[in-house]
Specification:
This protein is an alpha/beta fold. The protein has 9 helices and 12 strands. The longest helix has 20 residues. The structure holds NADP nicotinamide-adenine-dinucleotide phosphate.
């Protein structure tokens, strides 16, 4: 029987995704009708993105799952019309992209690269940077992406601490959990990377009290979600010197408004939500594997826990 798959991602992503989804359907041997317009009551699976056209899931009475193309689900989790199982994106391309971005920005700050790249007075300061093993790094969120980013940092010798909701056991990482664990994870950290999902429990997790626990002059790197940080507290900590630099990829409002204080702040690097993107070639494998599983009556991969919000 033909499986009807609705692509409800952003229009401009359709040409990128279509060939990979079709190739994967062929490879796995699923007879499918894949399109952007299918009568709602005939749709079996919805390939979805929050910036796509679909907002009301009510008419999709037969849909067996909504397969999100994004890792973050905060924009869909509160949609009361969504009653179907929801999966989120975990794909190798996303993991690799985040690992490269985080490692690059950690090394920028660890090695003090700016002092040499931006050196208008051509100062010859030949004091070498410390070794990685002298620079404690803390990763908030030890999920798919947090653990993927911890690996190369551990490999380079950084003392890496990770924090998650449930206790983890990641190779070479000091793993902490719970409220007390959070304070312990942040105390004395010189570089903090935020890779938590945005939920009620994680909003403003990095507030004034937590920022005060960091080593003076610490660096904050946020490729997670903007509201994980109390912006006013971060700006105050930057101005006081408690935080030496913030590299921010995500914001409460995106694109970040031109007049936002982060834009012109000399101690803030703004990147436009590019830390890592879902890659169509690898994402298509995950999407079609879940459709195969759905058709075979097997459990879906990467199901979102509605209770926990991620
Ligand atoms: P994930 O696998 O679900 O991992 C989330 C981690 O956060 C888990 O370790 C989880 O703990 C922990 N966590 C959640 N709520 C917590 C809480 N209240 N207290 C302590 N720890 C908590 O997610 P992921 O795939 O790694 O993605 C993480 C986030 O990265 C996404 O949600 C998205 O917002 C962001 N992201 C950004 C970009 C970008 O380009 N900037 C790209 C992709 C993703 P447990 O392990 O105990 O569940």
């Amino acid at each position: 029987m033909t499986v009807n798959i609705l692509f409800a991602g952003h229009d401009k992503r359709w040409p990128e995704y279509e060939p990979h989804l079709r190739a994967e359907l062929d490879r796995v041997g699923i007879d499918a009708h894949l399109a952007r317009d299918i009568a709602p009551e005939e749709v079996d699976y919805i390939v979805y993105a929050p910036n796509g056209p679909l907002k009301d899931f009510t008419p999709y009475s037969r849909a067996k799952a909504v397969l999100n193309l994004w890792a973050g689900v905060e924009q869909i989790i509160g949609n009361e019309t969504l009653t179907q199982p929801l999966t989120r994106m975990v794909d190798d391309g996303l993991r690799r992209g985040m690992r490269e971005w985080v490692t690059g920005h950690v090394l920028r700050h660890h090695l003090g690269m700016d002092a040499h790249i931006v050196n208008p007075h051509r100062i010859w300061d030949n004091s070498p940077p410390p070794l990685a093993r002298q620079r404690p790094v803390t990763i908030l969120g030890l999920g798919e992406l947090g653990q993927a980013c911890a690996e190369p940092l551990v490999e380079l010798g950084f003392p890496v601490t990770g924090w998650s909701r449930s206790q983890k056991d990641a190779p070479g990482v000091r793993c902490l959990a719970g409220e007390d664990g959070l304070r312990e994870a942040l105390r004395g950290a010189e570089i903090v990377v935020l890779l938590l999902p945005l939920t009620e429990a994680t909003e403003n997790v990095l507030d004034a009290e937590k920022l005060a626990l960091l080593a003076p002059g610490a660096v904050v790197i946020n490729p997670g979600r903007g509201p994980l940080i109390d912006d006013d507290a971060l700006l105050a900590a930057l101005d006081s010197g408690q935080v030496g630099h913030a590299t921010l990829d995500v914001f409460r409002i995106e694109p970040l408004p031109g007049e936002h204080p982060y834009r012109a702040h000399p101690k803030v690097t703004v990147t436009p939500h590019i830390a890592s993107d879902t890659r169509p070639s690898t994402a298509a494998e995950v999407i079609i594997e879940n459709i195969r599983r759905g058709e075979a009556g097997e459990p879906l991969l990467h199901l979102v826990d509605r209770q926990n919000g991620y």
